[in-house]
Protein 1
Amino acid sequence: MTTPATDDESHRAETPPPPPPEPSSDGGNGDGSDHGGDAGTDEELHGLLAEFDTPGALIAAARKVKNAGFTEFDCYSPFPVHGIDAAMGIQRTKLPLLVFAGGLAGLFLGTLMQWWMNAYDWPWNVAGKPTWSIPANVPISYETTILLSVLTTFFGMWAANKLPQVWHPFFRLDRFAKATDDGFFLGVEASDKRFDLEQTKQLLVAAGASHVDECYVDARPEARTMPRWILAAMAVLTMLAVIPIALVYKARATKSNQPHYHVFSDMDFQPKAKSDQPFTEFADGRANRGQLLGTVARGALKADDAYYRGLSGGQWLTGLPVQVEPTSAVIDRGQERYNIYCAPCHGFDGAGHGIIPERMAMLGGAWEARNLVDRGSVVIKMPNGQLFNTISNGNNTMMGYAAQIPVDDRWAIVLYVRALERSQNAAESELPPGAEVR
Ligand code: HEC
């Protein structure tokens, strides 16, 4: 790069000694190979570039060149030209096959990875589940299948198109720039077995080319090597990329009692008050302000003693709260809830012989739930409010069910317990007419 500018400039493809301006319609055609051509003796021929005026002419020429047996040629146009693939004899892409292979590899490797981790290297019993089971592996295997398919698609497309290619010998021809605007080009490479400079030129002219240019590869060594600054930048980036890995390895090998380094310290140390921490802004020195006295959330005021606590004027409620109507629908609901929540201990009939006491007896224990329906039971005499309170808060060894059973349902159960009691203590006079007494 330090050679005298004159020497350098004379070979520069980009900046030839300015030729006398020519009419644009004939630009570059007069001397045929305006770039590289003047140094043709020592520069290697890359190929011929022929320009056509219309997409149709390009297709016809591509067909001719293909039929002449050429394989190393390509077409360049400002927009996709329909039918050009068939005219050039381009085969259908093999990419789908590659992608399929990539997907299979992903499926296999993903499954293998899970087997190795879960069933072989570190088998771990999670709730008695098998360490190796295909259904459990489906999500990950599915993802790795997609991952490798996508990567093969992406990089396969680049590789199949020989990308990235930042430079092409045709770029040395000014005319070639028209390929992005209004020029339709067909380039035949000299490496093709059929290539012969004169004959191929004639073939292209006969195919209707308006211009045919020879294209030479820039033979200067500096034109074939990457610019120094790019190499330097790559070297620097590579060295920088090693630093994080080195730091990780250093951290693994050494001990430190320093707090870890905070990259985004604002996320770790925010100016905020945490509850149960001291906080000087308030007179009492606490961050937690507690609940405001007397505040009740909307809809959470449970002022109705009868409904929520079974109380009336400090005594157990004997009747029913106004919200509870003793309809058969409510009693049915009470039966259903009772059978779920109470029958396991108190039995379906309320006599205290549910499945749990039965099991206790089998195990040799003597544990009983209270008989709710016996004439002598405390329950039969207890006011509705007290029964409601027992369901809500429990009694002695029976726990409360307020957490599981909503208030409405607790009252429905009260009604059903009453129905159970009545059904088993009915006087003969209370029976419906025609009932059989045994
Ligand atoms: C896990 C078993 C169990 C379940 C479930 C259970 N109970 Fe009890 N219940 C008991 C036992 C045991 C007692 C006796 C408590 C004691 O006095 O030690 C009892 C006592 C009672 C009493 C008498 C309380 C008193 O003041 O003597 C009532 C009424 C009662 N249960 C109603 C119910 C209702 C209604 C349900 C369904 C919501 C229910 N229980 C669910 C075990 C159970």
Protein 2
Amino acid sequence: MKNLLILLSLAGLCNLASAADEPSPAALAGSNGCMICHNASQKLVGPAYKSIADKYQGQSDIQKTLVNKVRNGGAGAWGKIPMPAHPDATEENLNKIVAWILKGSPAN
Ligand code: HEC
């Protein structure tokens, strides 16, 4: 019984460690090249993340649509300049980045 408790607490520690090692969504946006064209509050080539969050506020089903749009690229929602496709970004990372954008892209 005591051994089991020790094992369980070790497993808990490992969980904490791996959560801390995961890159933040902001870091993922950087390493996936999103910040080349996007910025939290200013329009660059693409719209500001805050504008994206405002535009889709309250649309609970928008997450998947936006993940697909980032993966496949496309134009028309903000203007004529297209966003290129991102075939190398993983679904998991795109989900994290888009959820973070929709939350208002907090710094931490
Ligand atoms: C080469 C420039 C460029 C890069 C790199 C880029 N974007 Fe974009 N992004 C754009 C442009 C331009 C638009 C506006 C497209 C439109 O008008 O439909 C856009 C639009 C978006 C939108 C809103 C889409 C919509 O339909 O409203 C999201 C979300 C987004 N980008 C996320 C990302 C993420 C996440 C990454 C990184 C994986 C990324 N972008 C990388 C240029 C870029």
